[in-house]
Prior knowledge:
This protein is of the alpha+beta class. It is 14% helix and 33% strand.
Amino acid sequence: MKDWPYDVFPTGWYQIGYTAELAAGDVRPVKYFDRELVLFRTQEGEVALLDAYCAHLGAHLGYGGTVKGECIECPFHGWLWTREGSLAQIPYAPGEARRVKLDAWQTREIDGLILVWYDSFGRDPWWEWPGIREFKDTAGCYPIYPQGADHIGIRKIIPQSPVENTPDYYHFMWVHGAGQPGKPLLWEEDGHFLHTRIGFVFGHGKTSTWLTPDGPVTGEIETEAWGLGLSNARFVLDDFVTSQLTAATPVDREHSQLFDTITCTREPGSDAPEPTGTAARMLEFQKGQIRQDFAIWENQRYVEHPPFAGGEEEHYARFRRWSRQFYENAPEPAREPEPA
């Protein structure tokens, strides 16, 4: 983003794919955090992410590399690398060893998402991502895959932009066509975690809409952010809930890969694997709504000291203070000592 003040990527967990799209034996070349990487799944089903270039003669493991058991084989000379990045074998010199290693990245698979940990200062994870309760509840909500897995692609957007929507209560009227702004109800910070609630009147000013056929409904938008890579918006209208996770993973200094993952409360009595009725329409509606935000963020510049109005400054200032921790070499949170 033009005039962006930070020269590091923010610390945190980031989405790099969906579990359902990476089968055992799959190998993919990927690029994140200005690094060429290789993503693969071992024959036993473990996900691995390594720096892409073989330490022998620099071949890219993502182009022609092959999974062999729990290792990836270099397409150039067959050197075998473990998912931890260590050299397992030189096939034409089995009795020889070399003190070489590839950087291995910490990954997790949670609620159908594949995640990677990034820290500019090389530290281990400060926290674990707990997932989204609606993604886990496949009895009460529709499965996220495939209908709810929206691949936005690589866009000129930085990770902070989606999360910085959290304190922006006024943009709903201009970007999303709402009849009035949101009303802040809750702002809670707990280290890396930010939790808010916004009062919202769905269908304000209209006698009837497809979502509010009986007239306006007072509801809430609950937001949760874990660092700047993963942020969830939960739209609550009585018993109908839509949960939408936006994930922005840096590719380089200006671009991120965007994922948008959505689910809704099941239609009463439905056990269908795919959304139907209002739920199906809501999923498609929200996919369109987030793209309206993307169009703004892609062409935005960063204003360090905005001329706020209408009380905007309170929560924007809180957000920007909270966000700084992910760019700085701050000390890790205190940990409980291990039992003797």
